[in-house]
Amino acid sequence: MKGWCSWHEGYAEDPVLVGVVEVGSGPGGSLYACRDCVEAYRLKPLSDHPEESDGSPLYEQRRS
Ligand SMILES: [Zn+2]
After folding, report:
1. Angstrom distance (rounded) from CA 23 to CA 48
2. Is residue 60 within 8 Å of 44, Cβ to Cβ?
3. CB neighbours (10 Å) of residue 14?
4. Which of 27, 36, 46, 52 is the most buried (most CB within 10 A)?
5. Model pTM?
6. What CA–CA distance (Å, rounded) separates 40 from 53?
7. How many CA atoms lie less than 13 Å away from 22 in the CB half-sphere?
8. C-alpha 63 – ligand 1 centre gap (Å)
9. 26 exposure class (CB count in 10 Å sphere: 0-12, 13-18, 19+)
């Protein structure tokens, strides 16, 4: 299924849900990133976020 990747701002096949934008007044939105951007920006899929996450996109910490 095609969806919008918010990182490279284009359509992509099977984007990954990486965040939820909470908007005070009005509907919130879901943030998707394509697999290439998840890889490039080390985004964490929303399903891997810790429980205390507010839904904003998280980036994997680079391990040294
Ligand atoms: Zn992308």
Report:
1. 22
2. yes
3. 10
4. 46
5. 0.82
6. 22
7. 5
8. 23
9. exposed
**Each residue's pLDDT tens digit, 4-61:** 999 999 999 999 999 998 777 776 789 999 999 999 999 999 999 999 999 999 999 8
Q: Three-state secondary structure along 7-59? A: CCCEEEECCEEEEEECCCCCCCEEEEECHHHHHHHCECCHHHCCCCCCCCCCE
Q: How far is the CA of 54 from the centre of ligand 1 (A)?
A: 22
Confidence at residue 20, expressed as pLDDT on a 0 to 100 scale: 93
pLDDT of residue 24: 77
CA of 10 to the centre of ligand 1 (A): 7
What pLDDT score was predicted for residue 38? 97
